[in-house]
Specification:
The complex is a heterodimer of chains A (249) and B (224). Chain A is an alpha/beta fold and 249 residues long. Chain A has helices at 40-48, 96-101, 115-121, 137-150, 167-184, 195-201, 219-222, 241-247; strands at 3-14, 17-27, 29-33, 55-60, 63-67, 72-73, 81-84, 155-159, 188-192, 204-209, 212-217, 223-225, 231-233. Chain A starts with a strand and ends with a helix. Chain B starts with 10 loop residues before the first helix and ends with a helix.
């Protein structure tokens, strides 16, 4: 399943930082790659409806989500765009089951992924009655994924979902993400500054730097093999030795 | 009262104790909904005049209570701006009104700090899960911040229990009608019944102790 996400002349200014993007994406899994402060999170927050762009037009398939010129703006709760932020923001007063069921459609919905299949795929059966405070980092990541997917989003935004995990847990969660893609092909936008994760998961990658789209392409066009991490940004795409150090790290 | 009866509670003392307790609880209950809503608006939104509202809300914390009482009296007096609407001056209701005004900043402050500490991420994620703003507030914002709100309410209630200056101006100090524990103690000291004043002070301490202890227990039970 793919969606078409159009971001037309989208602009936002946050102090000295200015983001300006004009791009159309056929989302299977699109990666947004760039160093810290490049504007990746700002961009997904605009797509999710959590920030207002100063200019521009955003549409998902045939639905206009925001059109600044025509004063149109769909609030986040009506967009059906799932969002897993970097800090996950699990609800601490609900247990795992309560978190996953929070966004479940109110009407009878037999479409996949169902609650049961999510629990099975993400290995959460034994955790359903646990409090959030009692979960490990990798378990929290899986709960956040299940919670977002159980709301049946048309598009899933993942903002550096593997931050703070050690390599084993990262591999483990990446494996779950691959499984989710294989099983349901949920359209995803995956943000990271880790080339490894992107190369592994994404059909297309956008490189963003200083609020601007620098290049887009398949992983093989953007990254080159390395030893550790296994992939890194191509030398030709780095603008300066300092940025090369940051972006190839 | 002779000195032996100074250590006995009178019917008026009983009235003062009940009035103090009921008025303090009523004041907090009345403050709770607008206080929490205002705290959320202050913590989450930017709007014109916000800093003026912030200052107004904090004023009772720094103004002498007598000054607040005087302003309230001018507002609520028969010839005051609100006097034609509500007739509460020198009644037990004025005790609750004065306590509500004096304790309001504690509720707003406690709730605001709690909302700020929780951050807006959980609310944002709840919205992306399809929850309307009202559902987000009641199912996420309030439950996540309820410990801070409770702490603010306990402090507000404690503040109301001990309120003197504003109460005595707006409600007077009529034994058996508007006299509270604090104003009865004041009467006792003025008339040389120091031991009776100490008895009421001991009751005040016991009430405040019980209130704060109950609040602490509530907060401890809520720990995840």
């Amino acid at each position: 399943m793919t969606s078409r996400l159009a971001l037309r002349q989208v602009e936002i200014g946050l102090g000295a930082f200015h983001l300006a993007i004009d791009v159309e994406l056929q989302t299977g899994c699109v990666g947004i790659f760039g160093p810290s402060g490049a504007g990746k999170t700002t961009l997904v927050e605009i797509i999710a409806g959590l920030r207002h762009a100063r200019k521009g037009h955003i549409a998902l398939d045939e639905d206009v989500l925001a059109d600044v010129e025509n004063r149109k703006w769909i609030p986040p709760h009506l967009r059906r765009i799932g969002y897993v932020p970097q800090d996950l923001a699990l609800f601490p007063h609900l247990n795992v089951r309560g978190n996953i069921l929070y966004g479940a459609p109110k009407t009878v919905d037999v479409s996949e992924p169902s609650f049961d299949s999510l629990i099975e795929i993400l290995g959460l059966e034994a955790l359903l009655d646990r409090r959030i405070a009692a979960l490990s980092g990798g378990e929290r990541q899986r709960v956040a994924l299940a919670r977002a997917l159980n709301a049946k989003p048309r598009l899933l935004l993942l903002d550096e979902p593997l931050t703070g995990l050690d390599q084993d847990r990262k591999d483990n969660v990446l494996e779950y993400l691959r499984l989710l893609r294989q099983r349901w092909s949920v359209p995803m936008i995956y943000i990271s500054h880790q080339a490894d994760e992107m190369a592994d998961l994404c059909d297309e990658i956008l490189v963003i730097r200083d609020g601007k789209l620098v290049v887009r392409g398949r992983a093989a066009d953007i990254f080159e093999p390395a030893e550790r991490p296994a992939w890194r940004l191509k030398r030709t795409l780095c603008v300066s030795p300092e940025q090369e150090h940051v972006e190839r790290a | 009262m002779d000195s032996s009866s100074d250590l006995q509670l009178t019917a008026n003392d009983g009235h003062a104790i009940v009035l103090t307790l009921v008025s303090a609880l009523l004041a907090v209950l009345v403050d709770l909904a607008p206080g929490v809503a205002l705290a959320w608006l202050l913590a989450r939104k930017t709007w014109p005049g916000k800093s003026i509202v912030e200052t107004l809300v904090a004023l009772p914390l720094v103004l002498p209570p007598v000054a607040t009482g005087l302003l309230l009296l001018d507002l609520l007096a028969h010839n005051g701006p609100l006097g034609g609407v509500v007739d509460v001056v020198f009644t037990w209701k004025a005790v609750a009104v004065a306590m509500a005004v004096m304790s309001f900043p504690f509720i707003v402050r406690g709730a605001r700090l709690a909302f700020e500490a929780a951050g807006d991420r959980p609310e944002q994620v709840a919205a992306t899960l399809g929850a309307s703003p009202l559902r987000v507030f009641f199912s996420i914002s309030l439950p996540i911040s309820w410990r801070g709100i409770t702490a603010g309410a306990v402090m507000a209630c404690a503040r109301a229990l001990g309120e003197f200056g504003a109460v005595v101006l707006v409600a007077g100090n009529i034994p058996g009608v508007t006299a509270t524990i604090s104003t009865t103690m004041y009467n006792d000291i003025l008339t040389g019944h120091d031991e009776h004043a100490l008895l009421l002070a001991a009751i005040s301490i016991a009430l405040a102790f019980a209130l704060i202890l109950t609040g602490e227990q509530l907060l401890r039970r809520a720990l995840p």
